[in-house]
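Bench notes, afternoon.
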Amino acid sequence: MNTTKLQSIKDKYLELATKAADTNIVGTTEWTRIVKEQASLEPLVTVYDEYTKVMADIDGAKELLADPEMTELAQLEIQQNQERVQQLEQQLKILLLPKDPDDDKNTIVEIRAGAGGDEAALFASVLLRMYKMYADTRRWKIEDIDISDTGIGGIKEAVFIIKGQGVYGTLKYESGVHRVQRVPATETQGRVHTSTVTVAVLPEVEDVEVEILDKDLRIDTYRSGGAGGQHVNKTESAIRITHLPTGLVVQCQDEKSQIKNRDKAMRALKSKLYDFYKSQADKEYADNRKSQVGTGDRSERIRTYNYSQGRVTDHRIGLTIYALEDFVNGDLSKMLDALAMADQTAKLENSDF
């Protein structure tokens, strides 16, 4: 391990802790920045402190090897501590990996029914509920942007924002094609149908990150409405924004206020543009990458939900979970943790540690 680098990070952490304790800046923007940076270093410093303690214990045990009465006990302690050192070194390597600058950002999630007609729309509503239930377990906040329902319990499209700590870093592996295999309620002969739903997970971006010129936008207004004529807005409060250079389109009809709908739509557009330009810049990297985890390719079939067998399988890492009902009820932690670990392992293989 490069202990020099680790010690310099700890020194930086202690320096930030001293600055954060300065009562003259508490509550200011600078103080918030310092506290946030300190918190980001804390996990690594905690592991490094344990690492240095265990290494010191090994050195102390080695000194006891010269005492015949203590040799056996010292050897046992050395062996146990060396095993712990290996574990801590692995943790430190992962913590030293370059952080995705988007990981701590709020996230815009888009769910669209794909092949399969009404059954695809019904499964899209299942995924919408699944992500919202998982967000609730994490105490993340959800803000709807646009939900287009079919009137029979399904949705053609849903766009919403999830706000909270580490949202994008946790959910970014969900981008791709989700396939469902099950017997639709309308199927009289009990045949299994296969349908697909596309999920896109985008980091919400700040104004300074994406420049949008007014001349590049076409903004249309229309009346919002719900299934069966419910909640129809008599004024044209719904907003559709088209970014002419790229052809990207966003719309919002969740709010009664046209101003609020425009604000939400612009936030969604900025995130889509950020993802569009970032995907172009990262294309060569993604093409050459060994691991498919985290590429965010919306054309890639990433997961299958098989209802007859009660299983959900992620094809990128070959993980199958035989608890489909729990999974679609928001119990995603095991799958998301495995995806994050696979991504970290792939990065470690290509690192210089």
